[in-house]
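ARCHIVE CARD
CATEGORY: sequence design from structure
SOURCE FIELD: tokenized fold
FIELD CONTENT:
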């Protein structure tokens, strides 16, 4: 629930008895948060509010607009102990790891400099991280530009917007992408399924309208020198994402922050070490002409990669990171790929995707769930059936599928391919309003060959100087 929508009326408990009124609403004793009991959910839904925004909540008198420590004890007693422990863990992580994440994003990932204009795009669900980022940008001498989005406004847009509104692109957005020096995106949703029942025609219309903005963004990202747009995206550990991953919020927070190596005293130093190993792999692949990937589940596919550049993803574009990628030759992909995990796009899951390529294009596509949506996305423009990206996941601290592409495509011992738009910095040229990553697991019987020689088997690189799991972790 957005922070400004606080309880002002008596809220009935699941059993019908009032828990607390607006002037009795219980503040927990942890310094930065209060619990909110929402009567519309069963079991109770718990969220929290930053007390820096509501300084009145620090008071302990039980009068209108303030909150009692005794009330906090009463409310806490009604909560399931496991849930209470979970929320305590979330409170604790906000004091340390979120600040560390903000520091890494600002000072390592996008490298904010004096007088840089830095856009922070985020959901209101992620305000603790947004505030930390805002603070770090100011400390670095930059000028923060805040862009908050709201899930319910997005729902209204797709429900009420007419075709001319779906196709509209604000000229201010174009000017913004032309002007900013850095962009930090924070992904967090109140409901990750909010787009599931949106008409795919509307989604396609919006993506096509936004394509010139995407092209401009990618062009600036691929530029050199002062014209380069330095950007990075990250995930905030919110309840909706934790639910998708089938974890508690505390477990998901541990997963997210460990994937970003934030359990280390100096995460940036760790990413620099990883960068060295990944660059060795990129240097090797830059000299190869063809890649072939096979699995026991039916994948047997060849990619032309001659002359294309492999990019070392070391935490300066996505965070967490851990992959190397390129844009394959547009007319050289041949064979069949069977993706291991459900592919998520626009809030929809598509299961058991099988794609067959001839002369670089998808000529047959099937899925056990969501096939109609898959076909509509592939048919949206001329470039949607061409591969825009080929990548190998190298983050061995990520080993679980979580229904979140940011993490799933980084799983150490997997490869992923994206249909649609390519990244210009690889030398690839495909253009599309679509960019959809799909992941194939190689940890059980998978093989990658480069120019006929095996470079990865069962999820492990044969060259120990390339990325590998820490002792006791990974495959």
């Amino acid at each position: 629930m957005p922070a400004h929508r606080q309880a002002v009326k008596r809220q009935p408990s699941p059993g019908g008895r009032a828990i607390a009124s607006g002037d009795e609403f219980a503040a927990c004793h942890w310094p930065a948060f209060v619990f909110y009991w929402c009567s519309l959910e069963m079991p109770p839904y718990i969220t929290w509010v930053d007390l820096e925004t509501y300084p009145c909540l620090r008071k302990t008198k039980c009068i209108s607009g303030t909150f009692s420590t005794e009330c906090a004890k009463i409310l806490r007693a009604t909560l399931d102990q496991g849930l209470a422990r979970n929320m305590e863990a979330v409170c604790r992580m906000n004091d340390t790891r979120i600040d560390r994440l903000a520091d890494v994003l600002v000072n390592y990932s996008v490298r904010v400099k004096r007088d840089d204009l830095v856009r922070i795009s985020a959901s209101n669900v992620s305000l603790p991280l947004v505030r930390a980022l805002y603070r770090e940008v100011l400390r670095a001498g930059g000028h923060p530009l805040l862009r908050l989005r709201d899930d319910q406004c997005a729902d209204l847009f797709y429900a009420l917007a007419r075709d001319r509104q779906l196709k509209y692109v604000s000229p201010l957005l174009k000017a913004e992408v032309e002007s900013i020096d850095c962009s930090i995106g924070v992904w967090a949703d109140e409901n990750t399924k909010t787009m599931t029942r949106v008409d795919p025609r509307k989604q396609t219309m919006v993506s096509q309208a936004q394509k010139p903005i995407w092209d401009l963004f990618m062009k600036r990202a691929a530029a050199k020198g002062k014209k380069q747009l330095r950007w990075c995206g990250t995930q905030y550990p919110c309840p909706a994402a934790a639910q998708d991953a089938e974890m508690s919020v505390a477990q998901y927070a541990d997963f997210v922050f460990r994937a970003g190596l934030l359990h280390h005293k100096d995460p940036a130093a760790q990413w620099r070490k990883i960068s060295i190993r990944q660059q060795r792999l990129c240097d090797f692949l830059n000299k190869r002409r063809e890649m072939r990937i096979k699995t026991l589940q039916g994948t047997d596919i060849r990619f032309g990669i001659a002359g294309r550049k492999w990019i070392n993803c070391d935490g300066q574009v996505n965070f967490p990171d851990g992959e190397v990628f390129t844009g394959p030759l547009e007319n050289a992909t041949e064979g069949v790929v069977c993706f291991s995990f459900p592919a998520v796009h626009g809030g929809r899951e598509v299961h058991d995707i099988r794609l067959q390529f001839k002369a670089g294009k998808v000529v047959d596509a099937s899925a056990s769930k969501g096939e109609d949506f898959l076909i509509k996305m592939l048919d949206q423009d001329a470039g949607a059936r061409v591969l825009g990206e080929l990548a190998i996941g190298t983050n061995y601290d990520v080993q679980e599928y979580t229904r979140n592409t940011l993490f799933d495509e980084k799983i150490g011992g997997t490869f992923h391919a994206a249909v649609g738009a390519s990244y210009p910095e690889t030398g690839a040229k495909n253009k599309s309003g679509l960019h959809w990553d799909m992941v194939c697991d190689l940890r059980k019987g998978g093989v990658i060959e480069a120019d006929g020689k095996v470079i990865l088997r069962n999820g492990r690189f044969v060259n120990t100087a390339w990325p590998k799991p820490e002792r006791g972790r990974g495959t």
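CARD ANNOTATION: Residues 362 and 385 are 5 Å apart (CA to CA). The chain has three domains: 11-79, 86-259, 267-461.
SHELF: design records, drawer C
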